Amino acid sequence: LNTQMKPSALMRYLGQVKDFEKPKITLEQYATDKEMAANVINLIDEEVGLEGNTVLDLGCGCGMLSIAASAMGAAYCLGVEIDEDAAAICKKNVEELECEEVVDILLADALTAPLPHNFFDVVLLNPPFGTKKNEGIDIQFVEKALKCVKEEGSVYSFHKSSTRSFLLKKGEELGAETRAAAQMRWKLSNTYRFHKKKAVDIDVDVICFTKIKKV
């Protein structure tokens, strides 16, 4: 039985996901674009498959990627979110979209939460880019994700395209086969007071880190 949503239906479904009410700049909170989320989830499903698999969403925000993974037939998805307000919106989204049987939300710091190692089939990451006071935090998220994913499992993470060569090298140092799976334009809406434009397009890479099996 195929429990997966078609791409067009997935886009409509994700259109119901509510975003941050009061985003926090210290946490680099930006709404995940639904079109990009749908494209990424479809890409992951084509490459490694989501149906019947366990998924971890580190720093899940309002739950866009977790909910998308559940719509593509994931057996279980754990979203980890440090911000109480975002976690509350995420919980509400999960309930309203009736995927609470598949998606659990854990209110915790994704980097320090005692998550099981070598457990998840796929880990999803939309980490802070580390552009403000959080320099290097994106790599910390990748390191945590690689601890939690199974051997030969995959981590899919969003990063600025300008950091691609650094990320590819870093992934190999961390024991993963690393490649740029896709490049996308992320339309960031005017979120904070210091933003001068209504929206800005940022080139974003979807980097895939496949954990190498230990011999």
TrEMBL record:
Methyltransferase small domain mapped to chain residues: 51-156
One GO MF term attached to the UniProt entry: rRNA (adenine-N6-)-methyltransferase activity
InterPro entries from the UniProt entry: DNA_methylase_N6_adenine_CS, rRNA_MeTrfase/Polyamine_Synth, SAM-dependent_MTases_sf, Small_mtfrase_dom
Superkingdom assignment: Eukaryota
Coiled coil: none
SUPFAM superfamilies: S-adenosyl-L-methionine-dependent methyltransferases
Record-stated family: Belongs to the methyltransferase superfamily. PrmA family.
Protein name in UniProt: Methyltransferase-like protein 5
